[in-house]
Structures are given as C-alpha cells and as structure tokens.
C-alpha cells in the first residue's frame, strides 16, 4: 500500500486516505515456461531465458504412473532414463548436468542410488546433494531435481 499524507501506526493517513497499487508483474521473459514431457504434479521444466535448464520432480514414472513398486535402484534407473530423455529432446548431453539433488524417502538407500549414479556419469560426477524426505508423489522412493547447461 502506498499512503499519502503523514503516516500513522494503523496505516491510515492524517487525511484518512490509503492508496493501493498493484504488485509488479513479471516480464514475459521471466514467466515460467513449461516444456517437455508431462509430470505428476505441478512441476516446471524451465524458468527464464538463460542457458540453464532447471528440471524438477523427475519421478520414476511411465505413462503418467509412478512406478513405486520397483526397488530404489530400479526407480533411480527410471529417473535417470527420464532425465536423459528430457535432455536429449533439447540436444543436451548428460555431461552438461551441473547439479543434481536426489530426494529419498529412506536415506539409507543412498548406496543403491550411488550404484546407478556411477554407471551414468562415467566418473565425471556433477555436484550432488542427497536429502531425506518424508514422502514423494505417488509413493516414489526417489526423485531428482537437476540443473543442466544448454550450450
């Protein structure tokens, strides 16, 4: 709120008037752009207009169904398959992944994730954070958030 006249503690002015202004609007270039394959939930695919690609909520899913009945290792494989598919649709190689966040419903499953992770990044591992969470959409055991560069 923008106020005219001398302000009082209650937000009114000496003249008793208050004036409202609309919040600033985001530019068209900064609005969220949803690209790529469909997902479970309201996850974005890319934000802004930079060379960075932000991918969130990569779940072990096919045909809009979360494969929660698979082992954590198998779910991780499906997540990384989906990541590669999304990146290849933009002609971005897996080597361009800059950061990965792995969310696990059982933090003790790190070893299962590590085993699959090692096979995909050929020793040039991007920085990674592993976070324990209470639950994931569809009963999944693992979910990925990824930042890659589109050069």
UniProtKB/TrEMBL annotation:
GO cellular component: cytosol
Feature: compositional bias, Basic and acidic residues: 1-11
Annotated region described as Disordered, given as residue ranges: 1-46
A molecular function (GO) term: deaminase activity
InterPro entries: RutC-like_sf, YjgF/YER057c/UK114
CDD domains found in the cross-reference section: YjgF_YER057c_UK114_family
Database matches in Pfam families: Ribonuc_L-PSP
Bias kind Polar residues: ranges: 19-30
Name assigned to this protein: Endoribonuclease L-PSP
